[in-house]
Amino acid sequence: MAALLKVKNLTKHFVVERNLFGRELSVVQAVNDVNLEIQPGETLGLVGESGCGKSTVARLIMRLINPTEGQIWFQGQEITELSRSAMQSIRAAIQMIFQDPYSSLDPRMTVNQIIGEGLKLNDSISAKEKKSLIQEIMAKVGLRPEHYDRHPHEFSGGQRQRIGIARVLILKPKLLVADEPVSALDVSIQAQVLNLMENLGSEFGLTYLFISHDLSVVEHISDRIAVMYLGKIVELAPTESLFTACKHPYTKALLSAVPCPDVGVKKKRIILNGSVPSPLNPPKGCRFHTRCPTAQPKCHQSEPDFDQVKPGHWVACHFPVSG
Questions:
Q1: Are 168 and 95 spatial neighbours (Cβ–Cβ below 8 Å)?
Q2: Which of 114, 157, 199, 279 places its Cα 20 to 30 Å from the Cα of 172?
Q3: Rounded CA gap, 279 and 228, in Å?
Q4: What's 315's DSSP letter?
Q5: Tens digits of per-residue pLDDT, 55-113?
Q6: How distant, in Å, are the alpha carbons of 49, 91, 112, 162 from that of 79?
Q7: What is the DSSP letter of 231?
């Protein structure tokens, strides 16, 4: 099966400072050499600490910003350098769910206006058909008929996120890029929204790139998980394989922080020394070696390859650990 989305060697550097002659003096290496494929109907989780480049990957895939290097393919078509007008034809097929369900909604618009905004360019739909379609989508995401003419400030955070989901769902997208879609919600509401997204994915055949800093969240919804550190993918594996037999020490540290649901069972927490290095000046060799509890001289000198250690399980580490 051909991948719905494929990114190859995706790189994004932001120039922070130039000299008088335009020469780059300082550059933020936000994303470096990222390679990913997402199959139709699959949910790929992308996790990592804040500032590791997850949201930049999302913006690159959405073509909200242009990559420094690399290619992006969607449904077999390379979209890396498509013009703004050329991208319009596929915008409806790639949609985004944002982190803050309030700031992403226009407070002056009613629910029906927000959800139906994407239908404005479709002249073949009558006003009656448009209203019927909006109400149908509202029901799918758990909004009631009386919500039709209300404004965003009249809803809870979870309901606002449902409005945001309905707004993109009405366009019948193929790929949804969800950037921290539940991080601003209460824990009890998070589960409801995750279940909703999972059910909608099955019903409409949606494909998700689900971005989060929380491994326990992506475990619930993802088929595979990619772990990102300082702009690079360091591990990629099926969800079960990652949780039962991770290979990268950074992944192991992240998993040690996931709460255990079994009463009385204590997990040994792995505390990493120091903080994430600056993307203005990332370490040579393995980017994680400055915090890695098992780093060896080779890790300081050469960058590890992204190798497949078993079918479907990839890791960038000179000395993979046992899960």
A1: yes
A2: 157
A3: 13
A4: E
A5: 999 999 999 999 999 999 999 999 999 988 889 889 889 999 988 777 888 889 999 99
A6: 28, 11, 32, 29
A7: T
